[in-house]
Amino acid sequence: MLAAIDLDDTVFDFQRAWERTAFQVLGHARCVRALTPSRRERYRLSASERAAVWAGFDWRYRDPLPGAVSAVRRLMQGGWTVFAVTAVPGHLRAEREAALAAAGIAMPVHCVGWRADKGSHLLHADLFVDDDPHHCERALELGVADVFWVGRTYPVQHECRARRVDTLEEAVSWLFSDDARLTAHAPAAASAGC
Questions:
Q1: Using one digit for the tens of pLDDT, what is the confidence trace for 54-77?
Q2: How far is it, in rounded angstroms, from Cα 104 to Cα 40?
Q3: Residue 32, CA distances (Å) to 3, 18, 19, 61, 154 in order
Q4: Where are the alpha helices (DSSP H) in 78-191?
């Protein structure tokens, strides 16, 4: 079984790293004004301020979200082949792999580029977990069996057909639960006349 997992705001706390960098670069951290994926809207930063924060951002940041590392390990120990798929340029692959290694996780990282479609990396995946509902919708369109949307960084009212969870740990716990096994076998049982 093949699992594809996003990194930023799924495994690692990107928001915390961004805010820390903003404070280091700008000398202040603006409070969160609105729950939105747009950093421009969230922090009310000018274009030059955003550019300065991005220029100072270290992609080797090591802020795993609670339970994320153990969730990845649980998948691996459960027989899953796990890889990361992230919407950053390929030249950042080494930094992303270094962050995973520092957290004690060894898995391949596929970098698809800024705002790029992750679809080609999901064609054979059985599981996909991401914080971006658009990537989750794409995974569902491609027929990925289990898709989880870590919906903590997007507005709750955002439409997404994926199973909404608060953490990667919650997604993996559900996957290994009796509910998941019952759901996975329900169509087969129904067709067998049960």
A1: 899 888 888 899 999 999 999 999
A2: 33
A3: 32, 12, 10, 21, 13
A4: 93-102, 133-141, 168-175, 178-191
**What is the distance between the alpha carbons of residues 111 and 120, in angstroms, rounded to a whole number?**
11
Q: Which two tokens stand for residue 40?
A: 């421009």
Predicted local distance difference test score (pLDDT) of residue 185:
36
Better pLDDT: 121 or 127? 127
Q: Which amino acid is at 42?
A: R
Q: Where are the domains of the chain?
A: 2-12+63-191, 14-56
Q: Which residues pair with 129 in a beta bridge?
A: 5, 148
Q: Is the CB of residue 68 less than 8 Å from the CB of residue 10?
A: yes
- Does residue 84 surpass a pLDDT of 90? yes
User: What's the predicted TM-score (pTM) here?
Assistant: 0.84
Helices (H), the chain: 14-26, 39-43, 47-56, 68-77, 93-102, 133-141, 168-175, 178-191
pLDDT band at 158 (very low <50, low <70, confident <90, very high): low
Q: Which two tokens stand for residue 9?
A: 């705001």
Q: Is 3.90.249.10 the CATH classification of the domain at 2-12+63-191?
A: no
